[in-house]
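Box 3.1 A note on notation
Throughout this textbook, protein chains are presented in two layers. The first layer is the amino acid sequence; the second is a token string describing backbone geometry. Keep the layers aligned when reading.
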Amino acid sequence: GGRPRRVCGGRATRVTVLRLREYRSIEWTMSAEAAQAVADAAGSALQVTQTFEAGRWQITSGCHVGTVVAGDLRILVTPKVKAANLFHMLEAGGDPVPVQAGIFEYERTGDLLPAFATFFAAVLDRAMTRGLPRQYRELDERLIALRGRVDVKAQIKLGGLPIPVACRFDEHTADTKVNRIAKGALLILLRLPGVSVATRQTLARLVSRFDEVSAVAPGDLATETSFSRLDEHFRPVDRLARLILAGSSITNRAGLDGASTFMVNMNTVFESFLEASLRRSLQGRLAVTGQRTTRLDEDGAVGIKPDLTFLRGRRTVYVGDAKYKLIDSGLGLSSDYYQLLAYTTALDLAEGVLVYCQDAEAPVPPKVVTVRHAGKRLHSWALTLAGGPADLDREIDDLAAWVVTRTDRSVDRRLLASA
């Protein structure tokens, strides 16, 4: 990798840049202390193992892409998809934002952090043209004057004192979950090294508009955000902000000095993109939900969450799962098929589909696998991502049209079983 210089404590030090693709390995000579620093900074996003050669270490990437900085080592992990397609997937069906300069810079450097920061700033800036989302929240406070209505039970507990007044009222507040998550992502990006000066200025300007919003709480990230027509324009912001908070959480939890991590889980990106794109393509024909909880067993003790559930009205008519990687044989993992089999069985469906992000270097998976003694048909559909964003959208439209044909046939399961 290249060796840019940085100033640390008033003196210039050399930073070594290592580049590797996702699901690939690279070997590097470093001390055991340096290797441990990389492992600590990356967490589970990278595997750092010693080779048989003394002082030689192997760094292996998985489904996470992004930037890991540990001491004077900066590791850049790039995805197998083109930069334009990556940012198209990050938009996940939202309106495109002009980030061509950021994409060009990312293609040149392979450093996702500054490009992602610029992208998030652009998406949030666009959403903010409609203002911060607000919602009414019921509050209980003791005030010196009446506001709203008197909380009679709480007032009685005051022993007959006229002041303070136990009030219950609705406040139109911007301190909502989606805003707290967005603010948390802004503060993270402002702290991470490598963000450009121009983007940092934009982020600082945006943070100033979140003054009345409190810090993100752990419970905010534990559940999905519910949107209404009043705050639907913040859905892309929420999705990206969650990626930022998750991608930088390794270093935050470890409290490491001189280290920073920004890694994005491409499995999550692909699942979110597929759900949003199919929902757009199938609008008016089928409803699409993601991570919809259903029960596997009769007692409801075991829950399952398919990535893609297709509904006609209230009836589930098809099921799918998003898989970002094929193994070298061109097959999915055995666990992929087991998982889809569980979904089709629990939902009483004759078939389902595994949707893969096809690596150009891997063979195409078989179109369908029929399960012995059960007759379940487990289809595979490969999105090649070989072209640009427009080509990717056409691939999604083809997949959507195919799902419709399969659901039309599933009206009569006996016809489907004999197909």
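The radius of gyration is 25 Å. Confidence is low (pLDDT under 50) at residues 250-255.
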